[in-house]
Amino acid sequence: AIEAIEQAKHLFDVVLLDVRLPDGSGVEVYEAMGSIAPHLQKQTAFLVGERVEGEILAFLRKTGAQYVPKPFPLPKVIAAVSSLARQIKKPQDKRRGAVVQPRKSS
Fold first, then answer.
1. Residue 91 contacts by C-beta under 8 Å, 6 or more apart in sequence?
2. Closest Cα partner for 30 from 73, 1, 72?
3. pTM as predicted
4. Cis peptide before 69 (omega within 30 of 0)
5. Cα–Cα distance between 40 and 36 in angstroms, integer?
């Protein structure tokens, strides 16, 4: 997951990140994201187990990150992504007032 963020950090608008990953934890990825793509930390929502407690709950409270408990209905995921997407500030071209589109990666 960290490698994917490093390679495509300018292509993501929103990150859905599970707290439990096969090769580590979403918390570790989120913390690594701070040095790789800190702007994405504010645009991250976590997928968590049905019961959120202990270190995970403390982490979520500390960061203020949005989270969606499993099993999650699709409308809750859409609501979380929509909320994060509304917070994105697109760079403005001050000469024309137009939104600058990111370049496509090859």
1. 99, 100
2. 1
3. 0.71
4. no
5. 9
Amino acid identity, position 78: I
For residues 17 and 34, give the distance between their C-alpha atoms in angstroms, rounded to a whole number.
Answer: 14
- Which helix (H) or strand (E) segment is 47 a member of? strand 44-48
Amino acid type, 26: G
Span 9-62, pLDDT tens digits = 778 788 889 998 888 889 999 998 888 888 889 889 999 988 888 899 999 999
**H-type alpha helices, the chain:** 2-8, 26-36, 38-41, 54-63, 74-86
Residue type present at position 95:
R
User: Cα 8–96–91 angle (5° rounding)?
Assistant: 25
> What token pair was written down for 18?
């599970």
Q: Which amino acid is at 53?
A: E
Query: Which residues, 6 or more positions from 41, have their beta carbon under 8 angstroms from its beta carbon?
Result: 30, 33, 34, 63, 65
DSSP code for 50: S
